[in-house]
Amino acid sequence: MNHSTKRLAVAPVTGAAMIAGILLTPGQASAGDTSFTSSCQAKSIITVDKSVAATMSVTAPASVAAGDTFTYRIQPNVSSYPDKDSGATTTNLSRIKYDYAIPDNTVFVSAAVVPGTAVNIDNVAPNVLRVNDSGTVDNAAGTIVRLSGNNEVVGNSPTSSTNSEGGIRAPKLKKNIDGSANSAGDSFYRLPAVDITVTAVAAGVITPKVRTAGSAANYGNDQNFSTSLAKASLLGTQWAPTRCIPSDDKSTLNAGAGPLATITVTGPVNNNTTTTLTAPATATTGQAVTLSAAVAPAAATGTVQFKDGNTDLGAAVPLNNGNATLSQTFTTAGAHSITAVYSGDSKNQPSTSAASVVNVTAAIVDTTTTMNIPSTATTGQSVDLWATVNGPGNVPATGGTVQFKDGGTDIGGPIALASGGAKLTYTFNAAGSHAISAVYSGADGFNPSTGGPTTVTVSDPAPVELNTVTTLTVPATATKGDAVAFTAEVKTDAGAAVTSGTVRFMDGGTPIGDAVTVVNGKATLQYTVGQTGNRVITAVYTGGTGYKGSTSAASTLNVKDATTPGGGGGSFGLPGLGTGSLGK
């Protein structure tokens, strides 16, 4: 194939007006480039209209044969914007884009940014999108190749803005294109080259152009092929969306709207073709089916790309005696619209089959539900109950719910399966053995299954016992035969009165009377002294529900003989208190 290089005028300076009064700066033309005038409009505080010189290089083959697939390259010119002008200080230029028309007499294949061809730009990396007239990505029918940063532009895009930075940005570097400092403080930059690959359809010519069809030819329109957003400081932040068309007078298009290159297409395609698709009416997920395409005439060469809607199914399949087949395994249920697209060759035109609908149903597989639960638990304390549901080959099931059960009783509600698992955080409220199971409901493509039962032994928590302190109060002296009182006060370490248990009063190692119930932290014993001498008295708290036992310090009671004749030697008690006699 014979290739030649053509350098033709095409693109205006995208770093056009910054705000009212800031000049549009012409791009730098390199030797051999053809220049034209670009009319640009920048709107901010006021509207500025400027004419600037613009250039672009196009590398393309001089001729191709019908049916050939080839690539041509478009390189935008060097552009710049000033440091200051008319009292305004520039900040940067962003949301820069170029739109190129997909040439007539071609079938679009792909487009890509050429690495290493951009200079002094940042923010969003430049990329190439195929868009329609509204600026929306349309990989099937778009007629425009857009060079931008993710379609972040000033208009004609779902992600446009005229008052915020975005997309491709030319930062304020005050440098020349070679990286040296610019004496005037101007900032130079260049957008990357774009390689556009197409297939020639019929004999004639192919003429790459910038976008000027329809509203794109109207001055100051968002569809103009070159747009950008200038930012500057003058009485605050100012934004100036800038739009350019190839024109000398803002209305009549000039040579910049014409062919960027002329590529001659030789060897006319003589034959119309018909592509017929054969596909099953039904299929099941996970099971392979055969898609077949027959291209007439049978001598046609090239490839067939099978598609599900706009999505390619595998790689393009080379024709063999006019036929192409693809083994396809559908992974999702539903109606799938299948087509076969023949690429064409040097003698045969491309063609697309009628669509065939394949109704795909989900394959139903058996499942296994397993549980991961603790063997023991304590009432009042939560535990996690896990269930895992897998299909064949331990592939996690999708869809459906898991219902945990304690015997025949549901615990909690149904839990949606996520990544093949379900978890219930549950608190048992009764001690004993609990038979826990997990019931999977099933879902599209998955049969129900049950895991368990698995026994969880639930026990009540061990009681928490608080430390106690017992303090004994006894009189220092007593007379034999007199009734005296011993009082024990029992508190926790924190000073709270205990509410249960009994106190046993001791004379040395001998109990005195009966054990006395603690009431509001106190126990009192009335007893009759029956023996003289020093008696060593202690109070032993035996403990109670939630309390540990404790023993008081020993207290000495000095008992003397009675000096008054007829002194009582009996004993008496108070209601509700224990009685006893010491030394009977």
Overall description:
This protein has no helices and 50 strands. The chain has 584 residues and is an all-beta fold. Strands 2, 3, 8, 9, 11, 12, 13, 14, 18, 19 and 20 form an 11-stranded antiparallel β-sheet that branches. Strands 23, 25, 26, 27, 29, 30 and 31 form a 7-stranded mixed β-sheet that branches. Strands 33, 35, 36, 37, 39 and 40 form a 6-stranded mixed β-sheet that branches. It has 4 domains: 4-266, Immunoglobulin-like (Sandwich), CATH 2.60.40.2270; 274-361, Sandwich (Immunoglobulin-like); 368-459, Sandwich (Immunoglobulin-like), CATH 2.60.40.10; 468-582, Immunoglobulins (Immunoglobulin-like, Sandwich). It is elongated.
Show the helix and strand layout.
Layout: E1 4-6, E2 36-43, E3 47-54, E4 56-60, E5 63-65, E6 69-76, E7 78-81, E8 84-85, E9 88-101, E10 106-113, E11 122-123, E12 127-131, E13 144-148, E14 168-171, E15 187-190, E16 194-200, E17 204-206, E18 209-210, E19 226-233, E20 237-246, E21 263-266, E22 274-278, E23 282-284, E24 288-296, E25 303-308, E26 311-312, E27 317-318, E28 323-329, E29 334-342, E30 351-352, E31 356-361, E32 368-372, E33 376-378, E34 382-390, E35 401-406, E36 409-410, E37 415-416, E38 421-427, E39 432-440, E40 449-459, E41 468-473, E42 477-479, E43 483-492, E44 502-507, E45 510-517, E46 522-529, E47 533-541, E48 550-551, E49 555-560, E50 578-582
